[in-house]
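Backbone-to-sequence.
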């Protein structure tokens, strides 16, 4: 069974940084390395939105220059480095994985709260 588990969320002051991690289990390394990995977020009362991905050149406009996604295939892990955080970045952050840009598998999310 494939499982994605996010961590690293929490409460941070505006201007601060957080690094989110998402570890995949139940996937062979060779398959994981070929998968697209993405980060999404959903704020209270809003729809889920794509933030950034490993195989996608698109990045959410509001996080350009502040958020960076990276992956470590040896650890079956994808990261989201978030800098210069703003209160509007407050949301639950989810990682997702799948072939090409079809995200078949999702984590449960990790909450991020940015205080002003």
């Amino acid at each position: 069974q494939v499982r994605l588990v996010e961590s690293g969320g929490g409460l941070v002051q505006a201007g601060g940084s957080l690094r989110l991690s998402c570890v995949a289990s139940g996937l062979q390394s060779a398959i994981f390395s070929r998968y697209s990995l993405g980060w999404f977020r959903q704020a209270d009362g809003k729809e889920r939105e794509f933030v950034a991905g490993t195989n996608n050149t698109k990045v959410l406009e509001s996080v350009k220059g502040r958020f960076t996604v990276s992956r470590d295939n040896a650890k079956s892990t994808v990261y989201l480095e978030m800098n210069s955080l703003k209160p509007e970045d407050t949301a639950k952050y989810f990682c997702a994985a799948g072939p090409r840009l079809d995200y078949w598998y999702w984590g449960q999310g990790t909450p991020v709260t940015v205080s002003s």
